[in-house]
Amino acid sequence: MNNGNVMGVFIGLESATYEYIANIIAPYQTNFELEIGDFLLIENMGSYIVSRVTEYRPTGELTSFMGQKWLGDVASNLDAIGLDIKEKKIRYTVRIKILGSLHNKTFRPGVTKIPNITSKVYKPSKDQLHEIIETVNRQQSNGKEIGSLYSDKDIKIKFNISELNAKRTFVFARAGYGKSNLMKLISSDWPKNEGGLVIFDPEGEYAVTDSKKRPGIMDHREAILVTNRRVDTKLRNVYRYMKLNLREFDPKFILPIIVNPSKHETVFFSKLMGMEIDDWGRLVDLLYNKGWRADLSEVAEIVTGSDEDTNNFQPVLNNLVSPIRSLHDPDSHLMGIITEAMRRDEVVLVDISLLDSKTALQLSSMVVKWIFDHNQRNFIDQDSKLIKATFVVEEAQSVIGQDSNYASFIELAKEGRKYGLGGIFITQQPGSIPSEILSQADNFFVFHLISRSDLESLRRANAHYSDDILTQVLSEPIPGKCYMWTSFQPFVLPLTVNNFEDIVKPDRSIEIQGNSDLLTDIKAMLQNEDSDPVNASIIAKYNEVERAGIDPGQRTIELYNRLDENERSYLNEKGQIQLTKENVPFAVKTKYYNSLKK
């Protein structure tokens, strides 16, 4: 039998849109402590129906027309209304949403047996409530404790961080209500064997202790910080090149990102897209060194191989000088460092707070697209070659919103899961996210929101966020209160998220990072790749091709033909294989071939 409190009797069940709603009648009690969101149990032939309170209101004679008239007459002396009158003439009608059943201490979602009318309704005991939440949260039993049930701090809520790997996750929160705290909790215990984590940090708030003494991720675990801020020189694992070496990339990869989409149909863009990678490298060097002073005839010669009408090449300067100046650094190894960190399942914090918004989005887009394209190329051999990574994207509405032109992030949101990539998209404007993306999400963490259109978008995308839940999201501006749903949960769990500041001490980043050679090891590996036996074998075969006196136009093909499967796999993983229009590999890339010259 139930050891909880009897609250009333069951009087019927109705089917609403995609959910079962029941009604119960509860008598007047002086200690009536029912709240919206409370769990209730209905006796049901040896088991219990589990439900959640969505609405309750007083009924009975005192709420009738005559009852209200009488109450008005005695309003000046309400103490005169005796307990016996209240018990006889007041009752409560409570609407509840059916969540599942509890049988032999096991919760099961859904309902097949309907309780009898007059079945007793209980408020669950502490043990029963624990059984319900534990069963619902069972998929996360090996996860990290991220908080406690909002209504009972003794019932802990866990989240398995592996559920973020190759999944779509949304965090909806207004500023100051806990999204940064949640991400610090998750990131600070990011596990091995789940791929790497890249956080694009637009406020510079995640890495180290801030001016308000709020600790950062590097105060708790080793991680790489990429920043152009001034940080303590004693802090290790800091990479200070906030740019990329644009010469490394194929123009077909980079131009769609750095040139405005409105210019993609123009003649100059088509000419740039047709450039060889060596010529692209020369153009980057020219515009980086000379900027607006670059000679248009030199630009024309690089782009087309002739000094045709130079006026036709002014758009090249107009569209490339600014992004190259903003994004290019010939000494940067940033992409290689991030890629290798992902292979090692590490955390990388990319502090884009001092970049203008356009440059920050372009830099972030290139990082996402580089790894996405790598995994897309290697999808067939995914077990050995895919780079598992999860990207944290703040202000997500600006990159995957209805009017976004940032294809890299849209690809990540729509197809990343297929290629082993996860995305954690953070925004306070869920209404701006396309419904076809939002409805496919695997995890939701919802904090306080105030826009009706945003709440409606969330309800349409995920019916588990029903009106009673959304009413609480709107009306309860409580920092740290979160409504969590994952794809294995039958209903939303309201929880209080643990405070990162109670777990991690501030100003420990120098000590924590001082015990790590993470960045040093990665940089050394990138600089010493020539010592790799596979790479050494490729260089030896390159020298054979050079000595053979083969037509220069055929040497990249000849080198490819001489490579064994292991060597081809090595270069394919690095994106150094050329493909035909039918995606058939046939040669090594020209720029890579030329880089082998000693």
Automatic annotation (TrEMBL):
UniProtKB keywords: ATP-binding, Nucleotide-binding
A Pfam cross-reference name: DUF87
UniProt GO MF annotations: 3'-5' DNA helicase activity; 5'-3' DNA helicase activity; ATP binding
Residue stretches making up the Helicase HerA central domain: 145-367
The protein, known as: ATP-binding protein
SUPFAM superfamilies: P-loop containing nucleoside triphosphate hydrolases
Protein family membership: Belongs to the HerA family.
Cross-referenced PANTHER family: HELICASE MJ1565-RELATED (PTHR42957)
Highest taxon listed in the record's lineage: Archaea
The keyword Transferase is assigned to this record: no
Keyword ATP-binding: yes
Catalysis: reaction(s): ATP + H2O = ADP + phosphate + H(+); Couples ATP hydrolysis with the unwinding of duplex DNA by translocating in the 3'-5' direction
